Amino acid sequence: MGHQINKYNVAHTFQKRRLLIAINCLAGLSIFFFGYDQGMMGGVNNAKAYIDLMGFGHTETAPDGTPNTPVITNTLLQGGIVSVYYLGTLVGALLGGWIGDRVGRIKTIALGSAWAIPWSHPPVLRSELQLDDMRTHGQRHRRGQFIAIEFTLNIFGVVVAYWLEFGLSYVNGGVSQIRWRFPIGFQIIPLLLLLAIVWYFPESPRWLVKVGRHEEAR
């Protein structure tokens, strides 16, 4: 290992397949967050307290007797709020490549975690580390396996969001503030985990070569 890789880096502990699994766990955490983020706003938009706060509709008892049924009277406002919420993802996608080339993949992931847009660069780090190692050790056949795991975790994040919000809809008859505040706040858990552990992972060898750190890249 190159002397610039600190002694706590997982690259000193794991090799080959184990290292690939560790790297995919890191990327999977980010992909899980992205999936959760995708599914979360659907339930939030149906919460009575959120609808009343944002002022894009109201709730009423449906003809079948279902209480607190959302009635959206200002779809432009509702859609605009959601669009602004996801604007951070767009900004992250556009800036991720440029920042990643300037400061490296690891620091970009950490910056994205702090900015709550971490989804763009962990897959890049995963693919660069994984593909280079697969070429070295003749494990190209595992590429599809790791991609399948990645998308499974993405959908799992959506599922967690849906089930969490479904469960919260029964708290205080679905009118509690917790129904929409907790799902939004829950996002901080995978973000904090990602921010805490990313420093223990190796940098992309392609980026290391690009900035002249050849020994560390090898």
TrEMBL record:
The regions listed as transmembrane in this protein's record are 20-36, 76-99, 144-164, 184-201
Which terms are listed as keywords in the entry?
A: Membrane, Transmembrane, Transmembrane helix
Entry annotated with the keyword Aminoacyl-tRNA synthetase: no
Q: Write down a Pfam family by its short name.
A: Sugar_tr
The primary location reported for this protein is membrane
Q: Is Protein transport there in the keyword field?
A: no
Membrane topology term reads: Multi-pass membrane protein
Cellular component terms per the entry's GO annotation: membrane
Q: Where is it located?
A: Membrane
Which InterPro entries is this protein grouped with? MFS_sugar_transport-like, MFS_Sugar_Transporters, MFS_trans_sf
**Superkingdom, according to UniProt?**
Eukaryota
Query: Which GO-annotated molecular functions does the record name?
Result: carbohydrate:proton symporter activity
What's the protein here called? Answer: Major facilitator superfamily (MFS) profile domain-containing protein
Organism, by scientific name, is Cryomyces minteri
Q: What is the lineage of its organism?
A: Eukaryota, Fungi, Dikarya, Ascomycota, Pezizomycotina
